[in-house]
Amino acid sequence: MKLQQLSLFLENRPGRLGAPLEAIAKEGINILTLSLADTAQFGILRLIVREWDKAKQVLEDAGWVVNLTEVVAVDVLDRPGGLAEALAVLEGAGLNIEYMYAFSLRRGDKAILIFRFEDPDRAIDVLLEKGLHVVDGDELLSVVSG
Amino acid sequence: MLTELWNDAAGGFHPASAPDFLPETALKQVQLRRLRAVVSLAYENVALFRTRMEERGLTPDSIQRLEDIQQLPFTVKADLRDTYPFGLFATPMSDVVRLHASSGTTGKPIVVAYTREDVDVWSEVMARTLACCGLHRGDVLQNAFGYGLFTGGLGAHYGAEALGATVVPISGGNSDRQIMLIRDFGVSALCCTPSYFTYLIERAAELGVDLRALPLRAGIFGAEPWTDGMRDHIEAAAGIKAYDIYGLSEIIGPGVASECSAQQGLHIFEDHFYPEIIDPETGEALPDGEEGELVLTTLSKKAMPMIRYRTRDITSLISEPCECGRTIRRMRRIGRRSDDMFIIRGVNVFPSQVEAALLAVEGTLPHYQIILTRDQGLDQMSVEVEVTPEVFSDKIRALEDVRARLAKAIEHILGIRVGLRLVEPRSIARSEGKAKRVIDRRNEGA
Amino acid sequence: MAAQIHEAHRQTEHRIWDPDAETLPREDIEALQLERLRELVTRVARVPFYRDHFAHREIGPHSIRSLADVRRLPLTTKDDLRRQHPFGFLAVPRKALARIHGSSGTTGRPTFVAYTARDLETWSNLCARFLVAGGLRPEHTAQVAFGYGLFTGGFGLHYGIERVGAAIIPAAAGNTRRQIEIMRDLDPEVLICTPSYALTIADSARELGIDPRSLPIRFGHFGGEPWTEDMRREIEDQLDIAAFNNYGLSEIIGPGVSGECPERTGMHIQEDHFLVECLDPETLEPVPEGEPGELVITTLTREAMPLIRYRTRDIARLYREPCACGRRTTRMSRVTGRTDDMLIIRGLNVFPSQIEEALLRVEGTTPHYLIEVSRPGTLDEVHVKVEIRPEIFSDRMDRMQTLCERISREINTVAGIRAHVDLVEPRSIERFVGKAKRVLDRRDLGE
């Protein structure tokens, strides 16, 4: 139920973000979602894509350093308090979130949260146990590209 | 004759230590003679002191016996700030050969001055300090106190030179190099803060260096309070004797008092610094043995004599004879203070200085808290400041900039590096009445 | 304006601290040097490095009949010092040492320099000579903004000022705003630091809204790093002071080997204590007078650690004609280059090999790195660019930041400097065939 996330190291200067995105677009790989964390000097681009293994190969061949990380996607109702409820569950279970990002779907009433946990397997157990919906790769593909 | 004896016998008696062994009556004669001279010097040259004497109807002739010192007015740290920079100088600048500075209680520094004779006295009392700690000519002293405006580094340096030891002036920091030099140079004594030494012990172990197997035999520790528990740990882990020394810039720097081989209290070099213990509330003098605030009078300082300077350090005096044979009185280790000052890496810090810096950047005083921790033996100070709407921005860089400006303002005033964290509004605990501004976690889990 | 100040300075303040030694006639200087050199050859026989060399070639005091015979003696290099770490070059018992300093080595391990009490006396006196030549008087106050510590920087000048009887503010390096505050409050006439730090003080003063020309400083003695006549003009103009140059290196004694007089036409070498040659670094033959070459120095009077023909790696020129100031000693030009890859960063000597050693302690940061040295304002900055590799990349920002901090800390431990660590993308650092170019020095330090 874990998702494969690609992360890339980028220098924080003009034009650096476009290059890797173009490289995978050229191969017809769709980006489901992304997040960017940056400092003054460099940034880390995190991507969830349809064909992660192919995308990784493409990016590595083009010279980027690419990491593969397992993340967990959870969908929550896209309404006030939706995120807070999910977070309360995680906090209550003492699960440590390394970082997270979120996006809402164009259609429907759901928002997707992407979590990076220290221990993703345990996190999935807890989430399921508490009745939250963990979204797996295929499901994410279908809801995003719909 | 004495000098020859000392030169020939390593570990023998250093002639500079002679006053440590003066019979009580002789010591008191020296003290009275010097007290009268220093009171005259200050009365004639320091306006603040003269005014205070006159208000009390006193003249230098009022000092006929040592006990008469109790009639004299106190000097407090704020006096140094209020008369900054030259107001307490008793000699013209042309006689001054050294100036040191430290931070005052607010943003403004305080300055202390030395004539050639003062530097000589300082070197002498530091040589006596090192002799008290069992050092002698031929010893190799690694001086890891910081050099600069802080008096620790140069004080120990000149003392070791006067003693005839070899000085390795490494100053603070760079622990791996410190350990390498201890090993390579056959260093026999080291001076630094006790917390830094506990880190050197850990680091040496990581590097596979067994300090116990090296010639290092004495640690001269000062510039911050420490405990007997820390001493036991240091002595066992490094195979050395650990000595506590005491001093403060306003009086002379290090060299006011030192432990001896008995390690039962610190001998005050009473022929130069006259100690009294007072009740910090009433200012009344307390007898030997009773705990109170230490008040010191410099008996021989020329450039900046200090009369009845209130140190704010709480201790008591021990007048019983010491097994080492020294006749000068001892004071117990400093356990606490009568104000909110704390010491970080040997630097005195008042919360009011931090406030002055925050106020200067933000215009208003945000909620803040000072957190003291100890990392790798070095005290770390971090300041948590609540984000106010005025400084908040969605741009990481703008917040980073606010953070950097606050940190820089504090570092500028204190002269040491501090960590600064922006925290959420209302995340710092409010308490009834006076907020708890300082959280000291330095001795947790150590 | 600065020129006028300098002229006034020259007319009214030129005095000689040690006239007997400093104004010796040329033939007397050389006679003294010869006598001391012969005595030195006897003295260094305690040092195995020299003893073995001498025994092998049957060299002794009899071999030195004229000063030119110094060329029969062996050269000494920094590597020789390193190989004898720590005390192999001592010519006195260890108990006689009063001080031990270090100089930065090509690796994390410094080389050491030892002093007897008499060496320290000599050192103070040599510094007093150039300080007084540059106008220092007992009634002055001097702010010493050099670091004090294992490297000789602040100490020589500190003791020199003390010897003259002037007051010292031992401000050490750093916290520029506080330096300015102290300067304004305590009125020092003299500033002692690196030339680039003098400009930093001027910059910071302007940032604080203070006219740097209004600061109380009247003259400064600057050294510890190479600088140019352009920089001198900048310093004099911005701070409205007279600026003097001095030269020295830890292995020899520290600052005090040579210094300027008010004529400022080169630095007078203290030839009663140092015998200086100027050699072609390739052929090791003397270069004609006035031509650039590597300075090779023999310490004539050092007790603890005398060195024979030490290769300084510094390029300069020597001038032997008499100076208008009355001193007859040989003068040397500014140092205009190095014959090795040593960098001087804010007055600290740094070898690229030290940075490499630091990087080797952090797995995955070599082999692709580049050291970039620049002087964006007045202070040197070092950026160490490290190519990101899979083994050091993490998707977590905190880990990446910790990595930068760790590299920076290792560099600080080994080389003693604060470097900015820039993580860069793979293959963004130029590849070289053969020996990689590791250093890009963008500073303009020419003559």
TrEMBL record, chain A:
<feature type="domain" description="ACT">
    <location>
        <begin position="71"/>
        <end position="146"/>
    </location>
</feature>
<protein>
    <submittedName>
        <fullName>Amino acid-binding ACT domain protein</fullName>
    </submittedName>
</protein>
<dbReference type="Pfam" id="PF19571">
    <property type="entry name" value="ACT_8"/>
</dbReference>
<dbReference type="InterPro" id="IPR045739">
    <property type="entry name" value="ACT_dom_pair"/>
</dbReference>
<dbReference type="InterPro" id="IPR045865">
    <property type="entry name" value="ACT-like_dom_sf"/>
</dbReference>
<dbReference type="InterPro" id="IPR002912">
    <property type="entry name" value="ACT_dom"/>
</dbReference>
UniProtKB/TrEMBL annotation, chain B:
<comment type="subunit">
    <text>Monomer.</text>
</comment>
<feature type="domain" description="AMP-dependent synthetase/ligase">
    <location>
        <begin position="93"/>
        <end position="296"/>
    </location>
</feature>
<feature type="domain" description="AMP-dependent ligase C-terminal">
    <location>
        <begin position="346"/>
        <end position="442"/>
    </location>
</feature>
<dbReference type="InterPro" id="IPR045851">
    <property type="entry name" value="AMP-bd_C_sf"/>
</dbReference>
<protein>
    <recommendedName>
        <fullName>Phenylacetate-coenzyme A ligase</fullName>
        <ecNumber>6.2.1.30</ecNumber>
    </recommendedName>
</protein>
<comment type="function">
    <text>Catalyzes the activation of phenylacetic acid (PA) to phenylacetyl-CoA (PA-CoA).</text>
</comment>
<dbReference type="Pfam" id="PF14535">
    <property type="entry name" value="AMP-binding_C_2"/>
</dbReference>
<dbReference type="InterPro" id="IPR028154">
    <property type="entry name" value="AMP-dep_Lig_C"/>
</dbReference>
<dbReference type="InterPro" id="IPR051414">
    <property type="entry name" value="Adenylate-forming_Reductase"/>
</dbReference>
<dbReference type="Pfam" id="PF00501">
    <property type="entry name" value="AMP-binding"/>
</dbReference>
<dbReference type="InterPro" id="IPR042099">
    <property type="entry name" value="ANL_N_sf"/>
</dbReference>
<dbReference type="GO" id="GO:0000166">
    <property type="term" value="F:nucleotide binding"/>
</dbReference>
<dbReference type="GO" id="GO:0010124">
    <property type="term" value="P:phenylacetate catabolic process"/>
</dbReference>
<comment type="similarity">
    <text>Belongs to the phenylacetyl-CoA ligase family.</text>
</comment>
<dbReference type="InterPro" id="IPR000873">
    <property type="entry name" value="AMP-dep_synth/lig_dom"/>
</dbReference>
TrEMBL record, chain C:
<dbReference type="Pfam" id="PF00501">
    <property type="entry name" value="AMP-binding"/>
</dbReference>
<dbReference type="GO" id="GO:0047475">
    <property type="term" value="F:phenylacetate-CoA ligase activity"/>
</dbReference>
<dbReference type="GO" id="GO:0000166">
    <property type="term" value="F:nucleotide binding"/>
</dbReference>
<feature type="domain" description="AMP-dependent synthetase/ligase">
    <location>
        <begin position="96"/>
        <end position="298"/>
    </location>
</feature>
<dbReference type="InterPro" id="IPR051414">
    <property type="entry name" value="Adenylate-forming_Reductase"/>
</dbReference>
<dbReference type="GO" id="GO:0010124">
    <property type="term" value="P:phenylacetate catabolic process"/>
</dbReference>
<dbReference type="InterPro" id="IPR000873">
    <property type="entry name" value="AMP-dep_synth/lig_dom"/>
</dbReference>
<feature type="domain" description="AMP-dependent ligase C-terminal">
    <location>
        <begin position="347"/>
        <end position="443"/>
    </location>
</feature>
<comment type="similarity">
    <text>Belongs to the phenylacetyl-CoA ligase family.</text>
</comment>
<dbReference type="Pfam" id="PF14535">
    <property type="entry name" value="AMP-binding_C_2"/>
</dbReference>
<dbReference type="InterPro" id="IPR011880">
    <property type="entry name" value="PA_CoA_ligase"/>
</dbReference>
<dbReference type="InterPro" id="IPR045851">
    <property type="entry name" value="AMP-bd_C_sf"/>
</dbReference>
<keyword id="KW-0436">Ligase</keyword>
<dbReference type="InterPro" id="IPR042099">
    <property type="entry name" value="ANL_N_sf"/>
</dbReference>
<dbReference type="InterPro" id="IPR028154">
    <property type="entry name" value="AMP-dep_Lig_C"/>
</dbReference>
